[in-house]
Automatic annotation (TrEMBL):
Lineage: Eukaryota, Metazoa, Chordata, Craniata, Vertebrata
Protein name: Solute carrier family 13 member 2
Domain of life: Eukaryota
Family, as annotated: Belongs to the SLC13A/DASS transporter (TC 2.A.47) family. NADC subfamily.
GO biological process annotation, one example: cellular response to lithium ion
Species this chain originates from: Balaenoptera acutorostrata
Pfam family, one: Na_sulph_symp
Gene: SLC13A2
PANTHER family reported in the protein's UniProt record: SOLUTE CARRIER FAMILY 13 MEMBER, SOLUTE CARRIER FAMILY 13 MEMBER 2
Single Gene Ontology MF annotation: sodium:dicarboxylate symporter activity
Biased composition, class Basic and acidic residues, residue ranges: 184-198
Transmembrane regions: 12-31, 38-62, 82-100, 109-131, 227-249, 269-293, 330-349, 369-387, 485-506, 512-532, 544-563
Compartmental location: Membrane
Length: 599
């Protein structure tokens, strides 16, 4: 019997893929309508995304097969949904992020900030959280965590042992940093190969056996690991390109409400999400310090001769590694300049509170900016492939005297081919295809009609309950899949009960990033967990409170500064055009407990 269950478990993914479509077949057979056909596709894809029986990107291709065969949309119409402007923005942003990683610019920024903040226990966690959150605003959360966790353990290794000043003065190499991304001239070693390396440098964990380590040191180590992975997820919500779920929202809004006048762009998202990120990051620091350090002022501030000696050793580790990077190269300066230029162009293209360069120089007949954020990202990415990594000039190729060569560009296709997450591009496209299919089949209208009884529930209560639901759901499924499934439903619900669509779509998008409780919830959690010292109970204990804090902060944001920013107190005309009912433009204040009123 045990062998039978083991066999079923071993073949569980095959069984799910085979039987799941058959089990759901009664829906389209008994209800032969386009709405039922679309619902069948959405339910099937949602379950496959939750179980991951198929790769997420492969599941995202199902609309290209099912929608044409079910008569919902033509194949050419479905295919166009897989490369929209939001996908272009993601690709351009990732190309710039890959250049930053390739030239180790993110490591230089991290070490420099840590040198400024210092290594006192009370500030060390805050320092790592600030650095990690800032980096994850611009580059991959996974790459940020993979870089910062070894640095954190290398610093803790010096902080937890009585240092020998001789070693420090002689500049003894710290093997923990050898697990970092190598220089741009070398190939990047994969994380799994680093962890499994037997004859190489020691892994970045405390050298003493766990049984002999002090309990306070263990708690501090756990807190450092968690602070890095949590702040990577928190930092990603601050910018539109910081995490893929933000781009899913922008794409869904543009797809479902094509007349929305570009309400979600880089500048508007940053103005809304950045204060949310800062508040949540500070509350997370307070909670992690209370949970893993307590409120012992003497210890947390590093008072005492022995603690100061350890701090000097840990500080020396950071200073030495920063010194090993050497002065900034031409490539680093060039990438930094292009990165700053990209951010400035994003903010000033169409900011809303003043006329942007897009409106002035490249406007259409209505005065709107024709270039998008994706246009700017691709422009900077193309420049990365053109600009040389060294001051232009001819140099001899090593080992081949007399043969001249030009310096390589700041970015090349080999790096892109190895590191670009193309599966996310396809996953985004699958979500946009589902949203378009829901609209074309009439499923969105049907859902809206069924959700009209929610009009009697106060909007703040609806937003709060939905945030809790999404935050719970995202612990077990992909963040991108979660937003892809829920956002079209929330858009239909908002139209049915005459709530501004962004009032429910914005907080639920942010809530999908609150994956703090389980190692499998998000890649940063898994990376921190793989370095040892953590149990699932530790992550669940810390993450549960962070989920609650996150939902409360998001609820505060959507009911305060976001209201005048997105005009959430009224139902927009661009959402009115897609619904059969009529919602008045003037509505009750959204922060009041009374339901919306229509005129």
């Amino acid at each position: 019997m045990a062998t039978c269950w083991q066999g079923l478990w071993a073949y569980r993914f095959y069984l799910i893929v085979f039987f799941l479509p058959i089990i759901l077949l009664p829906l389209p057979i008994l209800i032969p309508t386009k709405e039922a056909y679309c619902a069948y596709t959405i339910i099937l894809m949602a379950l496959l995304w939750c179980t991951e029986a198929l790769p997420l990107a492969i599941t995202a291709f199902l609309p290209t097969v099912l929608f044409p065969m079910m008569g919902i949309m033509g194949a050419s119409v479905v295919s166009t949904e897989y490369l929209k402007d939001t996908n272009i923005l993601f690709i351009g942003g990732m190309l710039v992020a890959l250049a930053v990683e390739h030239w180790n610019l993110h490591k230089r920024i991290a070490l420099r900030v840590l040198l400024i903040i210092g290594v006192r226990p009370s500030l060390l966690i805050l320092g790592f959280m600030v650095v990690t959150a800032f980096l994850s605003m611009w580059i991959s959360n996974t790459a940020t965590t993979a870089m910062m966790v070894p640095i954190a353990h290398a610093v803790l290794e010096q902080l937890h042992k009585v240092p020998k000043s001789k070693d420090v003065e002689e500049g003894e190499n710290n093997p923990a940093f050898e697990l970092q991304e190598p220089s741009p001239q070398k190939e990047e070693t994969k994380l799994d190969e680093k962890d499994n390396k037997q004859d190489g440098p020691a892994p970045p964990v405390p050298s003493e056996p766990k049984a002999q380590q002090d309990e306070e040191q263990l708690r501090f180590t756990r807190g450092m690991s968690l602070c890095v992975c949590y702040s990577a997820s928190i930092g990603g919500i601050a910018t539109l390109t910081g995490t893929t779920t933000n781009l899913v929202l922008q794409g869904q809004v543009n797809s479902l409400f094509p007349e929305n006048d570009n309400v979600v762009n880089f500048a508007s998202w940053f103005a809304f999400a950045f204060p949310t990120m800062v508040i949540l990051l500070l509350l997370s620091w307070v909670w992690l310090q209370f949970l893993f350090l307590g409120f012992n002022f003497r210890k947390n501030c590093g008072l005492g001769d022995e603690m100061r000696e350890r701090e000097r050793a840990a500080f020396e580790v950071i200073r030495r590694e920063h010194k090993l990077l050497g002065p900034m190269t031409f490539a680093e300066k060039a990438v930094s300049t292009l990165f700053v230029l990209l951010v400035v162009l994003w903010f000033t293209r169409e900011p809303g509170f003043f006329t942007g360069w897009g409106n002035l120089a490249f406007s259409d007949e209505d005065g709107k900016s024709m270039p998008s954020d994706g246009t700017v990202a691709i422009l900077i990415a193309v420049i990365l492939f053109i600009m040389p990594s060294k001051i232009p000039g001819l140099t001899q190729e090593p080992g081949k005297p007399g043969k001249l060569k030009a310096p390589p560009a700041l970015l090349n296709w080999k790096i892109v081919k190895e590191k670009m997450p193309w599966n996310i591009v396809l996953l985004l496209g699958g979500g946009f295809a589902l949203a378009k299919g829901s609209e074309e089949s009439g499923l969105s209208k049907w859902l809206g009609d069924k959700l009209t009884p929610l009009e009697s529930v106060p909007p703040p209560a609806i937003a709060f309950i939905l945030c809790l639901l999404i935050a719970t759901f995202t612990e077990c499924t992909s963040n991108v899949a979660t937003t892809t499934i829920f956002l079209p439903i929330l858009a239909s619900m908002s139209q049915a009960i005459c709530i501004h669509p962004l009032y429910v779509m914005l907080p639920c998008t942010l809530s999908s990033s609150l994956a703090f409780m389980l190692p499998v919830a998000t890649p940063p959690n898994a990376i921190a967990f793989s370095f040892g010292g953590l149990k699932v109970t530790h992550m669940a204990q810390a993450g549960f409170m962070l989920n609650i804090l996150g939902v409360l902060v998001i609820t505060l944001a959507i009911n305060t500064w976001s209201i005048p920013m997105f005009d959430l107190h009224s139902f927009p005309s661009w959402a009115q055009s897609n619904t059969t009912g009529f919602c008045g433009v003037s509505q009750a204040n959204i922060t009041t407990p009374s339901p919306y009123t229509t005129v």
